[in-house]
Specification:
The chain is α/β, with parallel strands linked by helices. The chain is built from eight helices and seven strands. The strands form two sheets. The protein has a four-stranded antiparallel beta sheet, with helices on one face. A three-stranded parallel beta sheet has the order 2-3-4, with helices on one face.
């Protein structure tokens, strides 16, 4: 069983530039008809990618140099608009699997949906995010190291201080972000308590 704790994330990074990138751009509505989330990653930023291809340009998610990225770098208010959980599901399933998102700021519900998947969403100052984006674009193989205990992100000569609300960070560090796993781990205690409750037993 995988360790549920989220202490560090290491690997290359990918930058998606722009403020107020909403969840409809992350995963367009026509892909929400899926019964399971498998395969959603291939459609992340589908419309943005298509529009750039028509103009003879390449979206970062279409650039094979970034296919192994583990950290996504974004700007302000990322994941705004609708509350669809498909957005972080698609990002998590793209390429080799995005395991953390670092940006200037996030929409609250999007950050909560990421938290439920164990994806940290720490924030950094705009100038620091710009420097990190430039660094990964200049060298797609540059190793990034996100340390949730130290709240830092290091890449080459860059060392950036991160911010994150105490509650979500503590859950990620302790591995208690997965509410379903927490319930299953306590099933014996739950069964014991349920057996003592008169309104849950002695049905006729």
């Amino acid at each position: 069983m995988d360790d549920p704790r989220r202490l560090t994330v290491t690997g290359p990074a990918i930058a998606v530039r722009g403020n107020d990138i909403d969840t409809d751009r992350v995963i367009p509505a026509r892909f929400l008809k899926c019964v399971v989330f498998d395969g959603l990653g291939a459609h992340a930023f589908a419309d943005d990618r298509s529009q750039l291809r028509e103009r003879g340009q390449t979206h970062p998610f279409d650039d094979p140099r970034f296919a192994d990225a583990r950290i996504l770098l974004v700007n302000k208010n990322f994941g705004c608009a609708s509350s669809r959980e498909h957005a972080p599901q698609a990002i998590m399933r793209w390429g080799s699997g995005i395991r953390a998102i670092v940006g200037e700021s996030f929409a609250e519900i999007f950050a909560g949906n990421c938290q439920a998947l164990g994806i940290p969403c720490p924030t950094a100052q705009a100038a620091d995010v710009a420097a990190l984006m430039a660094a990964c674009e200049a060298d797609p193989r540059l190793e990034f190291r996100l340390d949730l205990e130290a709240m830092t992100l290091r890449a080459g000569p860059h060392l950036v201080r991160l911010q994150m609300p105490t509650g979500p960070r503590s859950q990620l560090l302790a591995g208690t972000w997965d509410s379903t796993a927490e319930l299953l781990a306590a099933r014996d205690a739950i069964a014991t308590t349920a057996a003592r409750l008169p309104y849950l037993g002695n049905w006729r």
